[in-house]
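Message: I would value a second opinion on how I read folds in token form. Give me a protein, with the fold worked out from its sequence. Write it directly below this note and I will take it from there.
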Amino acid sequence: MTTLLLIEDDSETAQEITAELSDCGFEVVWAANGIEGLDRARSLRPDAMIVDRLLPGMDGLTVIEALRKDQVRTPVLVLSALGAVDDRVRGLRMGGDDYLTKPFAFVELIARIEALLRRPAESRERTLRAGPLELDLIERTVKRGERVIDLLPREFRLLEYMMQRCDQLLTRAMLLEEVWNYKFVPATNLVDVHMGRLRHKVDGPGDTPMIHSVRGTGFILRTGQKI
């Protein structure tokens, strides 16, 4: 059974999170403060952690920083009521792998934990590169050469997924499941609409096209000129 360590000082919130995750088949161990949480993380070595940012005894980010200094690479989802960009960036820079702002929907919490658990154990890239494209996972910025590309959150996630799978055919069903967290394939043109907007931003006037559609199947991000 997959073991999760939850470090959360609010007992009601902790009970709700534990109940939801337990229903999904996870074993949840709860720590009510930062000091206890750090001890549990070192001794238990869970598969993933959920850490509240503001904790008594020791701040959540300090807990994460201490673990990273110990070379503990357990994936961490940071929970916080602080949702400003600077707060999210700081949480990621201190060693968090993902950041979820309170209040949140439990379905999103579960989807984010599942996504963290799917990552390769030693995969902690901070910058993705594909041909002239560069995507910064910390600053949440994208550049093509020297041109800065302004993306909406879903477009950013879509491009991130494609850059991790360059030159690989991605079906609409794959994209709906991995980018939108659908567990079924609805009758929708959602992928095509977002892909059209993303392609318009990535492939500017005079640029060699990188995003290609495969009729009736899906899409490919190509780093070369082969179509």
User: Anything to note?
Assistant: Residues 61 and 91 are 7 Å apart (CA to CA).
